[in-house]
Amino acid sequence: MEQFKPMLFTCMKKYSKEQFVKDVVSGIIVAIIALPLSIALALASGVGPEPGLYTAIVAGFLISFFGGSTVQIAGPTAAFATIVAGIIATDGMDGLIIATIMAGIILILLGVFKAGALIKFIPYTITTGFTAGIAVTILIGQFKDFFGMDFHGEKPIETMDKLKLFFVNIDTINWQAVLVGVVCLAVLIIWPKFFTKVPASIIAVFVGIFMVKGLGLNVNTIGTLYPDLKAGLPSISVPHFSLGVIKNEMPNAFTIAILAAIESLLSAVVADGMVNSKHRSNQELIGQGIGNIGSVLFGGIPATGAIARTAANIKNGGRTPIAGMVHSITLLIILVVLMPYAKFIPMPCIAAILFQVAYNMCQWRPFVRLIKYAPKSDIIVLVLTFVLTIVFDLVVAIEWGMIVACILFIKRMSEETHVSGWTYQKDDEEFVDDLRPVKKEIRVYEITGPLFFGVSDALAESINVKDFTKVLVMRMRSVPAIDITALRALRDLVERAEKKGVTVVFSHVNEQPRQMMERADFIKLVGEENFQPNIDAALDRAEEILWLK
């Protein structure tokens, strides 16, 4: 049961005062980093700035408390921005809450049923493709605010619609907004090269506010777009549940759950490498589920482990979940005391922060490397997932990415399976293999590779029973696995052979195929005596059958 124990309880066994001080300091620093990011990601998700902080506070605390990583920092992330924006635009906040609660339940069930290791079966090409696609959607989504444009009341949801409106309204560019955005972006890029103690995003926020207020620039701020911005604790939000809404939100729930699982476990793996630890994947999924349910019930949005904030926590000395809990408490204090001042933050500054987020998550180097060196089938999956994420959405991208990946994998595996017969010098002579004579009435076939539905036809097409054949020897030492379709094809082969008076003998059947054959009564059909441990024993059995005939 150790794998279902929150990492917090394990860390407390050897906790020291020195580590507590380091965790507190790290938690405060990470909270300062998370403040502008949480607001920016909330705005990118189509909600106000407050839900971003609610998410970092509630989900961040719960995931640190119940999670399976020692150093994971959770909160709103860029991966969810387009998904959340789409759900809110079509189904409202109630739809998002219901979808996220369902996603939380799915995550908890995945953890309970020990599915943490199954996430590794999502192909790397798909995760790279949709991550790069999400980065592009975030980038395009921030064009309006970065360039200070006027879309004349239109609020597009789809990425391609946003891009279209950008070009249609390009004459409305506010060059003062562009100036603020460029300066803030320059601060984000240059500041970390010289100063590492103070987060660049905080400096960019102060520079942006100074430019707009000090120079009197005509640039939209958070207060302009969200005049009702207020401080205070979040209140519980209980949506209206109905069977129709639950059914409608099921695809969104699965998307949120899978994405949260992938991103949080990837972040935990990266963190393990940085601190030489090992997270509990199933407990982490349970923590993510609890955190997401708590987040949306208190006015937040979906959350997951954030790699950048987790890395910052590690670099500043955080080594236990206490750091993540301190990060949440610090943000709570900021929410209560300083939230009204967030209205002065310029929108181009928020856009610049999200530009940097998009760049950091786009993984363009791995993307280009895959294009150069990966097999064509992997490149197809990569590009397809990337394009579908941008043109449609993440749900479509993952669905079709997995479908195409599976089809191409089946094709590739089918090409690795071969059925070949031993070559005889002449049909009226004996053939010598490994200095052993094999009578012409005995035909030996080697099967190499897994036998599954994709290659079942090869058994009928490749195995040729001649008129003088009396025994077929099927050498299966290189068959690691078999499915029911291929087993059915073998059964058909045996039945056809019996009608022609031919006996089939199997050599070196491995564990999984043999178990399948036993459950399907295939061994009883063929005869236990016709299953031999190696080719020599199989040939001895074949000669015995010839003598009996």
Automatic annotation (TrEMBL):
Species per Swiss-Prot/TrEMBL record: Pseudobutyrivibrio xylanivorans
Keyword Membrane: yes
Stored SUPFAM superfamilies: SpoIIaa-like
Transmembrane regions: 20-45, 51-68, 96-114, 121-143, 173-191, 198-217, 253-271, 329-359, 379-410
Pfam family, one: Sulfate_transp
Protein location: Membrane
Gene Ontology annotations for the cellular component aspect, listed alphabetically: membrane
Protein name as annotated: Sulfate permease, SulP family
Keywords: Membrane, Transmembrane, Transmembrane helix
GO BP terms, alphabetized: transmembrane transport
Taxonomic lineage of the native organism: Bacteria, Bacillati, Bacillota, Clostridia, Lachnospirales
